[in-house]
Amino acid sequence: MLKHELRKKYKQMRAELSDVSASDFSILLANHVLQIPIWDFFYFHTFLGIEENKEVDTLPLITLLQGKDKNVVIPKVSGENSMENYLLTDNTVFRKNKWHIPEPVDGIIVPEDKIDVVFLPLLAFDEHGHRVGYGKGYYDTFLHKCPKETIKIGLSFFKAEETLITDVHENDVTLDYCVTPGKVYTFNR
């Protein structure tokens, strides 16, 4: 299946989720993250979901990470296809950007080479670990700057697409794991 077809399909599926289901699923995802062997690492990058798009609410995940004394890093769009990463602190102030993504206003920048684990937003993924995002390329560009060992974990309300994503580009970065309400998928490990 082509990415643009999957974007349309999964945006519609997310729009049909109730707010209660989206909230419950977000908590389940955070709990399922406990199954993944990532707890010896130090710097964890995560997105903040776009509430208007019914994206995964990562606040339960952030609470889990902070409870385990992990450093949480939040992205901020800084230019064409690029992001800066800011350490989340008690003093971090957020402002929504033009896409309604909450971003840190300022703070301590964490370089890509320090990031051990990345939680990725996505619309869909297949059984080979290919992901479909919104198509802007921000995360693929960012992941190419991270160490090869950085663990990439998708967060999805839905199971893997059984049909292979056919228009995978050579710059697309494959997931290592994808966490859903019903299962943790493992790829490349």
From TrEMBL:
It comes from the Bacteria. GO terms for biological process: folic acid-containing compound biosynthetic process; tetrahydrofolate interconversion. It catalyses: (6S)-5-formyl-5,6,7,8-tetrahydrofolate + ATP = (6R)-5,10-methenyltetrahydrofolate + ADP + phosphate. Pfam families: 5-FTHF_cyc-lig (PF01812). This is 5-formyltetrahydrofolate cyclo-ligase. The keyword Metal-binding applies. Substrate binds at I50, E55. Its cofactor is Mg(2+). Belongs to the 5-formyltetrahydrofolate cyclo-ligase family. NCBIfam families: MTHFS_bact (TIGR02727). SUPFAM superfamilies: NagB/RpiA/CoA transferase-like. Its EC number is 6.3.3.2. GO terms for molecular function: 5-formyltetrahydrofolate cyclo-ligase activity; ATP binding; metal ion binding. Keywords: ATP-binding, Ligase, Magnesium, Metal-binding, Nucleotide-binding. ATP binds at K3, H4, E5, L6, R7, R131, V132, G133, Y134, G135, K136, G137, Y138, Y139.
